[in-house]
Amino acid sequence: MGHRPRSLRLDGAGMRRCTVTVTHPWILCFIAGVVALAGMAADIYAQQPGGRLVIAQGTDAESLDPIAFTASPTAAITEHITETLVRMEIAEDATTGEIKTEVRGRLAESWSFSSDGTALTLRLRPGVKFHDGTDLDAEAVKLSLERIMNPACAAPFRAVLLGRIPYSPAALTTGDVANKNALIWTAKLIGADGNAIAVALKPGPALKVAVTGMVHRDPTVTVEFAAGTTTAAEVMQAVNDDKVASTVLTVAHAKDSDGSGRVDAVAPTKLSGYKSGVEAVDAATVRLTVPTPFAPLLAHLTHSAIGITSAKRLREAITALPPCGRGLEDKPAGTGPFMVKEWKKLERLVLAKNPQYWDKDQAGRPLPYLDELEWRVIPDDAARMIELERGTVQVAVRVPPLDVPRLQRDPNIGLDFTTSVRTIFIGLNARERAPDKEGGAPNPLADKRVRQALNHCVDKEAIVKTILGGQARVSDAPIVPQVIGYSKVGPYPFDATKAADLLREAGAKTPLKLKFHTPRGRYVRDVQVAQAVQAMLGTCGVEVELTPLEFVAYLALINKPASEAEHQMYLLGWGTVTVDADYGLYSLFHSSQWPPGPFNRGYYKSDAVDQRLDEARASADPDARKKLYAEAQQLIWDDAPWLFLHSESQITGIRKAVKGMQVHVTERVIAWNAWIE
Length: 677
Description:
D-Maltodextrin-Binding Protein, domain 2, globular, Dipeptide-binding Protein, domain 3, five-stranded antiparallel beta sheet
């Protein structure tokens, strides 16, 4: 369908009012990181408080714990509950297509880098409270970040977002403790029941230390040392004097601070520790330190996986299940505009207004306006549209393009067309051997000629035109043009003859049998796209067994270690939500990002690609980074670790009684400025 130029005005809280002219669906101007829906009231006093807004999406949240999720539908929810230190604003010149980004404060009101680029100091916003009533402070930020950084917690985004910030086992050597707050030393005590107890010893005079592995009424214990062994004072003095290379403590016993619950311990116990690059400078200041400059650091802090959680809630969760916590997956305590009220999994998630929320609108009135916000899970596209038309839901994401003409005729429904930083692809398991359950036979997808053949066999233009109604763009790179660092290296032309030649050169036996998994209801017409690919591959002698799955179960299937992987082909999308090529390339193609946890789910490995991505991360020169990313994209395109498909256009249906809704370029539907007329 055609796209007429239109002007949209943004009046969200804390944002400058401006007018945006949209001239083409793929060259959009994003101001303040959002495109406001048509109908946003010009009168800032028109907002009406109260009511419940129901948003329908195709999948449920994976977890409400910021460190545990991997997908945008979950992020869209968690961003209403937990908040990041900073947020990203994105602008694209409608004439030149030039991308500009600006990071603005959220929980941090200001920040600065050291002259050598290795330290980032952030000043926290005053007067912000968590949902449990505690204050936002540097300790909460430090605990939240270190929980993500702790390898034991297996946070999916740990390596790509915060991997350059030190948090690793460290020997106590000269110079290590110049920043005392950045060191935590743990001693393992063995309780009377034989269970290990991890006790954290922070440099300083106090003997009371936090217990992370023992259930006690009081999570604080006093560690005592028997006569004739190394004393606590001697240990602390050695730490403070920077003299200790490694220390063995002979521990006689430990007991609760109230004298009860005596715990016997064995000796000797070696003192070990973690060096952390996160420092609580004072109650309102946090400093992040990296060994060498890390260009994407500030952009990465805008990611919703870096949501900050209450220190009190974190301690409770970690006490319940050390070292990473239990209970945050359904009962987090953030600073966001909404709090969790009810979650009936695979059906609905209801959030209630946070009465202590810190932000206000332009008239100085508290946000949010809504009393409640409900996410309803409706995987089937047709069913989701029916509920939108009935009015039982007010917002429906991922409107099927073929439904657009009908919905445009409904006087009660408005449609928003917003571009996306998401690329849709079919990942290909490129390991040398087939999945173990197949007997470990040679894997045909390990040959890049086979992978290239699959790309030539699929007519992406036909998929975009017939299945997606023209509301998509055929991929010509691993990332989309809106991402800084994008370089056009494709597309793969549809050429069945070329595909057959490549399969023959690779010695592939036909019919080549492959297993193909796809999510159901996660992406625009995902199952229909997968079925079209299945049919097209069949014409090239590739017999595909297609299995659609509910999204959470689907993620569990493709997130396995390489030795346990069962998938061969998998349809997925990736949104480069930081708008920096590092996030879109390093996450998906660097060999350090193999599952479990990270996102290189096809187990792709290229030393040449790794080298360029590593160098680009360390460079502060934008031109040098751009060149390195261009080279990496060309290498990736030639290797064809994916069957490259398309990038989506977001179509969101909104009942016209809903005002102030915002649709973000990163596919977030933002409701804290919304109200119902």
